[in-house]
Amino acid sequence: MKCENCTKKECIKKTKIDDHQSISVDTLNFYSEHEEKSEFHKLADAKIFLSDCLASDTCVTAEEGIRVFQQNQKEFFRILNLNKKCDSSHHKVLAVSICPQSLPYFAAKFNLSITDASKRLCGFLKSLGVHYVFDSAIAADFSILESQKEFVYRYRQQNQKEHSLPMFASACPGWIRYAERVLGNPVTPHICTAKSPQQIMGSLVKDYFARQQNLSPAKIFHIIVAPCYDKKLEALREDFYTASYNSHDVDCVLTSGEIIQIMEQKKELVKEAAVDNLFGEIKEGDIVQDGRTRSDGYLEHIFKYAAKELFDMDIKEITYKALKNKDFQEISLEKNGEIVLRFAAAYGFRNIQNMVLKLKKGKFPYHFVEVLACPGGCLNGKGQTQTEDGKPDKALLRRMEEVYAEIPVQLPETNTHVQRLYQEWLDGIDSPKVLEALHTTYSAAEPPTDNVDIKW
User: Where are the transmembrane segments (predicted)?
Assistant: First the structure.
């Protein structure tokens, strides 16, 4: 059976599976059978689930498969146990960064406000032995701001440079892997070069924060709590690895659901704690979001920024026009009777394939597309909304959407922490360090030949 998310004929699944079934793979037994038992050992036997086409035979190499499976609770507990031993020379500083789309999941699960849920989660993680817990919304602000600038540059260069437009968002690792491994050159030059929030957070923790704390990046074990399993693949990218320190920007990705599994098994009351500040000073206050009414938000921010920068128009409200379905919508800007900007949001692989087909036919009407692999967006990541039988928990998702909409708004442009970091960390908003720390490149990749043999 050919994967419904793949356009390559050679992408054949080994066994037919139901459309709603996810890939379930037991954590690898690369740890010794004689491994020392610990208080965390009984919590480490969970399964890893991989979603969509990204775990099919022509999308993941055998080596990648092994390394993805190593990003699980057992690896997390291995580091925690290492820190409990006497030889402090081998100890790691554990830092956890929580994605903005994961916090509504914990709030919905706990039936708490987003701020109280954050405090409970932070307190629990620190009770396990985590040293720092960060909100990665600041990294999302960086990613949005850099994407805004890049779109305006591409728009102004569209008549001089090939592949300037359309521009596709780069925040979703499922979309990026699909574009690089399956779609190739017709698509990859159009992908925005701004790093995803996850990888910008990795740079912040392993570079800026490490220097603030006078630590080697290799001494920090950085964990991301994310809504989807595809983030595990993203953490393995070679461009997010620093050879001189033998260190990835992100060492381990755990989904929101995997964290809940740990919490449910631990069943201990813990003291609440506030999220830490990257600057090592006062604790941050209430959780804020950056004005996104949709689950990723690049479309709205770039649209408003481009309208002001390119046409001196202030856009307050945005009206979406639904096309074939609720996960494929568009907005446009008209000036003097002419449409000067047309953006779209394409969520889910069926909508992505329709979008790519239009691009290949040369009938592409959009200047920018916010592309996300998950139908419904990041809140609907399979790492937090999928039930044990593989079906989406619609009631939980509705509650998450309600919680997310209630988060107080702070626009990225007004985030004083971001502006401070541009100066202290990157030597200004237009310095060479900005390109190095906040941008990367995406290109076509040959499908792997040493495919991982996954049991479906």
Answer: none
Backbone torsions φ then ψ of 177, nearest 5 degrees:
-60, -40
What is the C-alpha to C-alpha distance for residues 337 and 346, in angstroms, rounded to an integer? 26
What pLDDT tens digit does each residue of the chain (456 aa) get?
A: 344 445 444 444 333 333 333 333 343 343 334 444 444 444 444 443 344 444 344 566 667 777 777 788 889 999 999 999 878 888 999 999 999 999 999 999 999 999 999 999 999 999 999 999 999 999 999 999 999 999 999 999 999 988 899 999 999 999 998 999 889 988 999 999 999 999 999 999 999 999 999 999 999 999 999 999 899 989 998 888 888 778 899 999 999 999 999 999 887 778 999 999 998 654 555 555 544 444 458 999 999 999 999 999 999 889 999 888 999 999 999 999 999 999 999 999 899 999 999 999 988 999 999 999 999 999 999 899 887 777 888 999 999 999 998 887 778 999 999 999 999 999 999 999 999 999 999 988 766 655 544 332
Residue 394: how many CB atoms within 10 A of its CB?
A: 12
Interior angle at CA 85, CA 82 and CA 88, nearest 5: 85
For residue 415, what are the CA distances in angstroms to 142, 289, 438?
A: 10, 11, 17
According to DSSP H, which parts of 172-246 are helical?
173-178, 197-203, 210-212, 230-234
Q: Which domains does the chain have, with CATH numbers?
A: 50-138+198-266 (3.40.50.1780), 141-195+292-438 (3.40.950.10)
Q: Which of 42, 41, 44, 5 is nearest to 23 (CA)?
A: 5
Q: Are 58 and 451 in contact (CB under 8 A)?
A: yes
Crossing angle between the packed helical segments 256-266 and 114-128, to the nearest 10 degrees: 70
Grouping H, G, I as helix, E, B as strand and the rest as coil, residue 332 is strand
pTM (2 d.p.)? 0.86
* Token digits of residue 309: 């920068």
Token pair in block for residue 107 = 């709030």
Name residue, tokens 């690792």. 173
- Residue 260 CA to chain centroid, in angstroms? 18
- Please classify residue 395 by burial: count the beta carbons closer than 10 Å to its beta carbon, then call 0-12 exposed, 13-18 middle and 19+ buried: exposed
Cross-strand pairs, 255? 226
Residues 6+ apart with CB under 8 A from 221: 79, 92, 93, 94, 95, 251, 252
